[in-house]
Q: What sequence folds into this?
């Protein structure tokens, strides 16, 4: 306030010490400041024991607090909302509000959080939050009070303090909320009234009304929406006037042909003359769409519309848009109500006034003749008044012209219709003439009154208007009056009596007749007819009176010859048949429009239902808040399942949370969300017979009998893909759709494979029917989706997956259940599609032609998006081993290969496993069923016996690999848990038969007796026993074999000896108890040498597999499985004939029961892999140390003591510019050191990401030129997962995923687009890393946690906790690309976890010699990467220039204890002090392994290589 007051005084500015200090500083040099206290020194709110100080030299100092000191750091609501969860928090608050006050406050929080924060507002739109909010409010509509309403609409742009400043500020929000009429129909009446009044404010009263109309409402279709609302019963009848007023405003604000005129006219044509019986069957739901009030509402809409086009400017637009004359007849109908007739006559009168040619045009289509036929049946005082207004031209006020002289006939064409109404009315009067006036009180005498008034009006005009008398120059008009008069009198002659009403009317019409008889314009013949009729009338009125006496000269025909000819010309009229034909064609048009509008209404209702269903399936926003670190965490233990995302060489070892919320829900239960709306039935046959031509088609001719189909317009086509359009990315277009079955193990999920213009989609639970419409699979016949041999899953969560086209890497043909689809010998064809995000998709086509079409499209897509740069082979790549971020070329090349290995250990009883002893290993030259003499004898006997009876002989009646065996071993790991139960008929097997004890299953095979021969014949590791394990490796004993066999398909890919979870009952499943011991079955019991640790068991098995003994004897085992001895009787290696390829053809089996039984045999019996080798497999080539890759002489693990630092740095960033990252340049074949705040893109070293501490923007730099600046990114750290995916950690507690897009004609980045904002941390994110191979992101934060995220889905997985407090802030994270191990480091400890956050080893840094509370003990770290590492190495760098190589192991654990993992130091090294004058080694700020070479970066800006001597 002081500064404000001073600034208002110009003379005082110079003298203000405060302003001078603010503007120029205090004038005290920083060197003179000992310390400073600032609120910015406090990082967060809460109890405080000390206040950090800013000191010279950067030393950590602080003030100690005494007493209870609580620090409060103020923050804006929108900023705080963003940090704790974004817009989803406001939605959740709204969701839990249960009172009017709570709803009002929740809307206030939402409004304040969004109004001034573009981040929250953008987040709201990405979540489809406004639609979700509308869905939430729909159930709380009665709780919305005036305050809540105003708060919400102020967010949308209303200004209730200054209404004239109101405007729509967010079209997306306005459309979702303000135009959700169903929502507002549920609110209180006063709220509804305020709601409809806001349309007037925006479109009529606001100073920005033109902007609102042209820029905001132009594409919202307000008029159409209001017309739809009028066809529902959402609003009560007392609210309809407000709806109509809003419609009037909408019509006048945006009066255009397509948005207003046509919709209103078609609505009126459909509903003004509604005939439900003729439009729908008796049970049609159309009858429940408020049919009782449709015509009433339509008449009100007609009145609103006519009042609008009665304004000259609107009328001109209307006449230019549609053929006005035809519209009049269309809307008039055959039997209009007086209200309809009045409005149409008003339109005719207005048109006749504005357009001088209208009357003639109307006459050309026989419009006046139609009026003559129609008006008599709806005549009432309103029609009477309007008809005479037309006759006398009383519409001049429309054009603001002076009124014509009184009683001047302007439009005589209407007069025959008036006389026709008189004739019809007099007939009705004559019919009631005998009724006394006082005998029937209920008789209203309306007709008598109307006819009397009509006759009186005609009498008055006859007496006062010369122009009116000239109307009777037409003999036709005069004859019409004569016929009317005569008919009336004739009927009265036979009447038994005559009341006073009739008598008065007869007297008055007689006087009118006498006046006409005396008129000189009337022919003599007609004069005599009138006089004769008058004689009869006089006789009826006074039977005793004598004959009338009139001077003959008064009734003589005095007309000239010319006048007589003119009178005859005026008498030409349209015949009755033509009028009937015209009216029939009008009726035909009307029915055509009604059918078309029923289609439109059906489409609108279905679209609305689909929208409601979509919104109800959106769970992303709530998942943000209900995960274990959310604001509203769900209670209970989390359930885990094996993630289908593949790691290096297609290993699957990651676990993912198994959410109970499906990605998409059923539509069945969601129809209730649309209150009182049913889908109208459409008469298909009628729509096919009728030609859908709108009445305004100028090409239509009344006399035409046929209409060319090319003239069709406004055809409403059914959207067959409505059900899936919401799944498409914005702007995407469907190019191809096919019904497929997605194979997941033994299950198949029917779904749609959609190829769009930009993306590929896999949507479960949906199929195409025979008409091409997308429907629910559960509602479809089985023939549309059933793949024989699969177990169809319809009740589980239905997934919706999508990939951009450039993510499709490759595809291959597959076999499924012995079907060789590559040869097209079956109607079912299978494909497996591989994606660059480490996922794959196995699908079976039911239509071979559709598969071929998809084949061609995929080939075209892959060819278009193939990246030639990533396929380059460079010398630097050869040194890297497996460590190439984003590298997939070699992996995709061997994508169809299988990595399979034998059981190699036979010692499951020793306390210690000696991998150097041959006794530890089994005999790999023999199959499992022939390892003992007893088993060999039994197998040979069986073979001989079968051969003797002319049966196809075999040694073993069961196979070593089948779905049942695989699921048997993986029963504890979802999704195989449910697969096992499915194969078992829905329940567990007997407890004693479940996999529970490795020692019992694989105890020394020499002890197995003949009776145990069928216990286990498997050659394979449990996770890979011939169930499609696809794995590729260059490690010594990994076997690459080409195969296309599928049993559990891609879903059961190799978990390898990599994941221990299949041995642990992490879900606490109840398997029952053993019958003999009563012991409950839980985890698998491990051999003693595993030290009760499944992970150690896995590690030792992998070491055994890679041992020298197995390497020497593995070729013999390969010959048994894929080679020359696969069906060798001498090797006792012949299995049942049905297990071999080609032995079963499921498609030739037509009987359903037989087919199911055969499939059961395949699942339970197993399949023999395809034979690949016809000659004995060669032995492994010995090249030196078996642990080293081929061609490598020295390794970090084997010869770490030989590593030496290079004498010269290969890159110097400059003094005081520390190296923070070491990036690989595949193009220039070099290492690029990056300073703080800079990161190079993989494969694109000329592209850089830049950020600065204390700044909020993120920059994209290409060729040293800034091409994009992203504001408010709050970037604190960054890492590339691959060349297209960037991850940043932010000071606003979020982790963000970005997509880098590049132009197709250049390799330069064209921009960065935010794809996900991930929240879990409660403090700044200070480090982040990502692995494309494992598709994970790991972020470290000051809150003491390292969080794992799914790179593909952008969702939280789990957290690794170091503890609370500043010292536990996780400042370093790294991922081992080969194993998925995760290393995290804080100031107090170094931790190693598996990819599933299972703790392995922890190093207490406080006990290390280099520990200091002032600086971090570890400043950099990196994993040594190999395809297989028997040791594993983690390098860490310190502030004292130290580099320590560590490994981790459980060796040395006491026999009776559980495995104890620990870090073991291999070697400690010191970097060289190169610069002169340096008193201490420089801090190591960056580390990276390049194959067997180590690179480090220093705080001095230099980077060095550590390598082995030549």
A:
């Amino acid at each position: 306030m002081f500064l404000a007051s001073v600034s208002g005084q110009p003379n005082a500015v110079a003298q203000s010490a405060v302003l001078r200090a603010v503007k120029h500083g205090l004038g005290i040099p920083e060197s003179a400041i000992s310390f400073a206290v600032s609120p910015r020194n406090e990082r967060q709110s809460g109890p405080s024991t000390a206040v950090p100080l800013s000191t010279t030299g950067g030393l950590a100092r602080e003030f100690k607090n005494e007493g209870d000191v609580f620090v409060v750091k103020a923050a804006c609501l929108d900023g705080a909302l963003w940090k704790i969860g974004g817009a989803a928090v406001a939605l959740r608050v709204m969701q839990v509000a249960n009172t009017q006050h709570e709803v009002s406050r929740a809307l206030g929080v939402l409004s304040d959080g969004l109004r001034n924060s573009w981040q929250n507002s953008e987040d709201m739109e990405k979540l489809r939050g406004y639609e979700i909010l509308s869905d939430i409010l729909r159930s709380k509509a009665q709780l919305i009070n005036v305050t809540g309403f105003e708060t919400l609409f102020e967010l949308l742009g209303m200004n209730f303090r200054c209404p004239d400043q109101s405007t729509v500020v967010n079209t997306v929000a306005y459309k979702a909320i303000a135009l959700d009429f169903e929502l507002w129909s549920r609110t209180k009446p006063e709220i509804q009234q305020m709601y409809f009044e806001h349309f007037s404010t925006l479109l009529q009263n606001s100073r920005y009304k033109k902007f609102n109309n042209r820029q905001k409402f132009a594409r919202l279709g307000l008029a159409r929406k209001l017309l739809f609302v009028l066809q529902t019963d959402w609003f009560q009848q007392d609210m309809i006037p407000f709806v109509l007023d809003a419609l009037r405003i909408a019509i006048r604000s945006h009066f255009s042909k397509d948005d207003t005129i046509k919709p209103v006219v078609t609505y009126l044509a459909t509903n003004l003359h509604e005939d439900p019986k003729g439009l729908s069957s008796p049970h049609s739901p159309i009858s429940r769409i408020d049919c009782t009030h449709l015509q009433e509402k339509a008449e009100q809409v007609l009145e609103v519309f006519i009042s609008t086009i009665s304004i000259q400017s609107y009328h001109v637009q209307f006449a230019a848009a549609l053929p006005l004359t035809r519209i009049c007849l269309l809307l008039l109908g055959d039997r209009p109500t007086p209200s309809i007739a009045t409005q149409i006559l008003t339109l005719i009168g207005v048109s006749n006034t504005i357009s001088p040619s209208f009357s003639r045009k109307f006459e050309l289509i026989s419009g006046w003749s139609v009026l003559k036929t129609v008006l008599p049946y709806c005549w009432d005082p309103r029609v009477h008044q309007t008809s005479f207004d037309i006759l006398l031209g009383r519409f001049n006020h429309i054009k603001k012209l002076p009124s014509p002289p009184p009683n001047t006939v302007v439009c005589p064409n209407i007069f025959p219709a008036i006389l026709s109404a008189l004739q019809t009315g007099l007939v009705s009067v004559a019919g009631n003439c005998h009724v006394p006036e006082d005998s029937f009180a209920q008789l209203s005498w309306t007709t008598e009154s109307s006819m009397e008034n009509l006759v009186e009006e005609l009498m008055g005009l006859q007496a006062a208007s010369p122009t009116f008398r000239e109307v009777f120059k037409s003999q036709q008009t005069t004859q019409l009056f004569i016929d009317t008069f005569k008919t009336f009198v004739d009927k009265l002659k036979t009447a038994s009596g005559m009341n006073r009403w009739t008598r008065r009317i007869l007297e008055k019409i007689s006087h009118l007749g006498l006046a006409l008889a005396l008129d000189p314009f009337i022919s003599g013949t007609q004069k005599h007819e009138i006089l004769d009729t008058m004689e009869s009338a006089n006789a009826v009125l006074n039977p005793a009176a004598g004959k009338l006496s009139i001077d003959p000269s008064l009734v003589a025909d005095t007309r000239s010859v010319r006048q007589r000819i003119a009178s005859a010309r005026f008498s030409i009229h349209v015949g009755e048949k033509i009028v009937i034909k015209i009216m029939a064609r009008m009726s035909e048009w009307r029915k055509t429009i009604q059918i078309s509008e029923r289609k439109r209404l059906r489409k609108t209702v279905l679209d609305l239902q689909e929208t409601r269903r979509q919104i109800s399936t959106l769970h992303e926003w709530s998942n943000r808040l209900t995960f274990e670190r959310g604001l509203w965490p769900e209670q209970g233990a989390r359930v885990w399942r094996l993630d289908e995302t593949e790691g290096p060489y297609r290993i699957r070892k990651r676990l993912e949370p198994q959410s109970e919320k499906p990605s998409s829900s059923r539509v069945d239960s969601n129809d209730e969300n649309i209150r009182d709306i049913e889908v109208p039935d459409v008469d298909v046959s009628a729509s096919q017979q009728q030609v859908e031509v709108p009445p305004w088609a100028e090409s239509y001719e009344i006399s035409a009998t046929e209409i060319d189909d090319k003239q069709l317009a406004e055809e409403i086509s059914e959207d067959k893909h409505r059900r899936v359009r919401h799944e498409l990315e914005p702007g995407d277009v469907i190019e191809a759709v096919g019904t497929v079955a997605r194979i997941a193990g033994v299950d198949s999920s029917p779904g749609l494979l959609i190829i769009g213009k930009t993306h590929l989609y896999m949507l479960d639970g949906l199929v195409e029917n025979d008409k091409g419409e997308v429907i629910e699979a559960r509602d479809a016949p089985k023939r549309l989706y059933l793949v024989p041999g699969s177990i169809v899953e319809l009740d589980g969560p239905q997934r919706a997956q999508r990939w951009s086209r450039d993510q499709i890497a490759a595809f291959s043909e597959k076999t499924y259940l012995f079907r060789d689809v590559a040869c097209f010998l079956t109607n079912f064809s299978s494909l497996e599609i591989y994606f660059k995000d480490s996922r794959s998709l196995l699908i079976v086509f039911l239509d071979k032609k559709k598969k071929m079409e998809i084949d061609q499209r995929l080939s075209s897509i892959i060819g278009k998006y193939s990246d030639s740069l990533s396929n380059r082979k460079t010398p630097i790549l050869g040194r890297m081993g497996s460590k190439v971020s984003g590298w997939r070329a070699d992996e995709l090349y061997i994508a169809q290969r299988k990595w399979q290995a034998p059981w190699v250990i036979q010692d499951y009883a020793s306390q210690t496993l000696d991998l150097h002893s041959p006794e530890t290993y089994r005999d790999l030259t023999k199959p499992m069923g022939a390892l003992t003499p007893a088993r060999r004898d039994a197998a040979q006997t069986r073979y001989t016996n079968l051969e003797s009876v002319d049966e196809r002989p075999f040694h073993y009646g069961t196979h070593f690999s089948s779905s049942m065996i695989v699921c048997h071993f993986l029963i504890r790991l979802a999704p195989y848990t449910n697969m096992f139960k499915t194969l078992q008929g829905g329940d567990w097997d007997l407890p004693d038969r479940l996999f529970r004890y490795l020692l019992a299953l694989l105890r020394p095979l020499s002890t197995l007796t003949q009776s145990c021969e069928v216990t286990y014949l498997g050659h394979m590791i449990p996770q890979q026993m011939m169930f499609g394990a696809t794995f590729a490796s260059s490690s010594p004993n990994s076997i690459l074999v080409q195969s296309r066999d599928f049993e559990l398909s891609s879903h059961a890919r190799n978990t390898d000896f990599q994941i221990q979870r299949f041995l642990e009952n992490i879900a606490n499943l109840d398997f029952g108890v053993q019958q003999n011991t009563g012991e409950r079955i839980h985890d698998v019991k491990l051999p003693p040498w595993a030290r009760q640790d499944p992970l150690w068991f896995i590690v030792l098995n992998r070491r055994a597999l890679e041992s020298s003994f197995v390497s020497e004897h593995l070729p013999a085992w390969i010959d048994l499985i894929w080679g020359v001895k696969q069906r060798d009787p001498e090797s006792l290696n012949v299995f049942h004939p049905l297990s071999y390829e080609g032995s079963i053809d499921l498609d030739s089996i037509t009987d359903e029961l037989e087919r199911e039984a055969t499939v059961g045999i395949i699942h339970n019996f197993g399949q023999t892999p395809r034979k690949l080798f016809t000659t004995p497999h060669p032995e492994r080539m010995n090249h030196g140390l078996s642990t080293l890759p081929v061609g490598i002489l020295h390794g970090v693990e084997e010869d770490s003591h030989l590593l030496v630092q290079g004498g010269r740095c290969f890159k110097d960033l400059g003094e005081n510019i520390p190296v923070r990252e070491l990036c690989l340049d595949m193009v220039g074949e070099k290492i690029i050191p990056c300073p703080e705040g800079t990161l190079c893109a993989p494969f694109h070293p000329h592209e850089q990401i830049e950020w600065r501490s204390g700044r909020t923007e993120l920059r994209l730099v290409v060729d040293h030129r800034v091409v994009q600046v992203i504001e408010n990114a709050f970037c604190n750290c960054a890492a590339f997962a691959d060349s297209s995916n960037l991850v940043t950690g932010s000071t606003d507690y979020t982790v963000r995923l970005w997509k880098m897009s590049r132009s197709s004609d250049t390799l330069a980045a064209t921009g960065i687009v935010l794809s996900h904002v991930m929240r879990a941390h409660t403090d700044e994110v200070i480090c982040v890393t990502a692995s494309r191979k494992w598709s994970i992101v790991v972020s470290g934060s000051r809150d003491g946690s390292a969080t794992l995220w799914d790179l593909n889905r952008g969702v939280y997985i789990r957290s690794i906790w170091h503890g609370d407090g500043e010292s536990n802030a996780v400042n370093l994270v790294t991922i081992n690309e080969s194993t998925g191990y995760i290393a995290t480091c804080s100031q107090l400890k170094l931790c190693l976890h598996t990819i599933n956050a299972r703790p392995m080893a922890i190093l207490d840094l406080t006990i290390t010699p280099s520990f200091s509370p002032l600086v971090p003990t570890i400043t950099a770290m990196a994993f040594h990467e190999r395809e297989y590492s028997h040791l594993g190495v983690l390098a860490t760098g310190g502030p004292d220039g130290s580099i320590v190589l560590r490994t981790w192991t459980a060796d040395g654990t006491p026999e009776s204890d559980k495995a104890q993992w620990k870090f073991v130091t291999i070697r400690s090294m010191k970097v060289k002090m190169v610069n002169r004058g340096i008193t201490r080694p420089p801090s190591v700020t960056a580390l990276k392994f390049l194959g067997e070479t180590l690179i480090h970066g220093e705080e001095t800006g230099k980077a060095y290589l550590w390598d082995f001597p030549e």
About this structure: The first strand starts at residue 35 and ends at 36. The longest helix spans residues 576-616. The chain has a mean pLDDT of 80.
